Amino acid sequence: MDKAINILSLVSYKFLPPDMGGQKGIAFFNRYLSKQTNLICVTIKENTQTTTEGYPIKNILSNISARYINPFYFFTLRRIINKEKITHLIIEHPYYGWLGILLKWFCKVKLVVHSHNIESLRFKTLNKWWWGILWYYEKMTHKSANHNFFIQDNDRNYAIENFKLTPDTCTTITYGFELSEAPAPADKQSAREQICKLHNIDASDNILLFNGTLSYKPNLDALDIILEKINPKLLATEDYSYKIIICGNKLPAVYNGLADYRDKNLVYAGFVEDINLYFKGADIFINPVIEGGGIKTKVVEALGYDLSVISSQSGAIGIPEAITGNKIIIVPDNDWDNFTVRLLSIDSKASIPTAFFGHFNWGHIAQRAAQAIIKNS
Hints:
Layout: E1 2-11, H1 21-33, E2 37-44, E3 57-61, H2 73-84, E4 88-92, H3 97-107, E5 110-114, H4 119-125, H5 131-144, E6 147-150, H6 153-162, E7 170-172, H7 185-199, E8 206-211, H8 217-235, E9 242-247, E10 266-270, H9 275-281, E11 284-287, H10 297-304, E12 308-312, E13 328-331, H11 336-344, H12 355-360, H13 362-375
Parallel strand pairs: 1-2, 1-4, 2-3, 4-5, 5-6, 6-7, 8-9, 8-11, 9-10, 11-12, 12-13
Helix pairs in contact: 1-13, 2-3, 3-5, 4-5, 7-9, 8-11
């Protein structure tokens, strides 16, 4: 731990307890970075589980959306910065850019922007008319920062070229995985047996998995692709016994709980308390996501649990194939015929290389982040 580094992490939305990928990205990043530096977090009142994270958490910010334009938070944070002798301020996404820039100027702290994707481009893919306004604000925020963390190399390279950032001020700090090695085969087999029992799946079936928050358009579009493009092709395939399990909450009511697909080898599990059980016990993770930005956290978690993955090109951005061995097959976007053919040929018994954990383990990621912060101090 570097005692000279005192970090204030400003998190402006709910992330505790962590359920979704983005929430886990902040929770684990802070948890492991706090082992390398002194870190406190200021966040919204809605966050709970604040006493088990290993670092002080101050639930100061309001839950309402007006918090993003509340000028009085400048004075609140300035008092904390002075009292705690804060040297670095980390903001998540660009939204509190204005506040981070003011605190940098008046409190003489180093500003670090922790980007989870190029946020404006993500909203462009979602057809939001105001994405261009956000793009200029995002550019200003990153250019004003002393250092920038990007979730994957494509985002880092885009920002260097289009936001005109200095490469030395940009570091790729990827989404991570807690385990340092894959689960034992016996653990995976036990998980598989539990899943089969829970959902009345025959032990001889191939278990295919997809998960994600289903109110999020890229995930819901991926579900539609599974229902309309991939599953019909699998149903027409002779001698392939399988079940597709869909995990995720907030499925729109119009889907009627996927009741119309129960006789089509599809199981809707909804929100599950322990998604890791499914990552460990399934045979293949299917990821036909072709929208959104950043890195698909579900793919990192699936690979970390030694689950074979087939993904669209867009869904695999940020996953270096050199460290995944034969565990992931990447198919061009929208080529669902090829997607299905390749799915049928996956070797689900292949093992994830140990190099994967050197790249994606949270402990190693936090070390790289701390080194970048210290180097820039």
